[in-house]
Write a structure and sequence with these properties.
about 70 residues, mainly alpha, 4 helices, globular
């Protein structure tokens, strides 16, 4: 029988971590809850505003990374 640890590793999903500063800016900009922003980023929401949130997130993260890598 496989050990409990090997089963847990196979079934445990990878938790996606988002840039907290960018998420907070999206909350301010769009006026949605943190939960809605996260659902939008995961693709669980499919509205026009969710698409805008995903695009804004990608753009903001790109800008943050450019500033940090100067």
């Amino acid at each position: 029988f496989p050990s409990h640890d090997s089963i847990a590793k196979k079934t445990t999903a990878q938790k996606r971590q988002y840039n907290k500063l960018v998420v907070n800016r999206l909350i301010e900009k769009h006026g949605f809850s943190k939960m809605y922003i996260h659902q939008s980023l995961r693709g669980e929401r499919n509205s026009e505003s969710s698409e805008k949130i995903r695009k804004d997130y990608a753009l903001m993260c790109k800008e943050v990374n450019e500033v940090l890598n100067k």
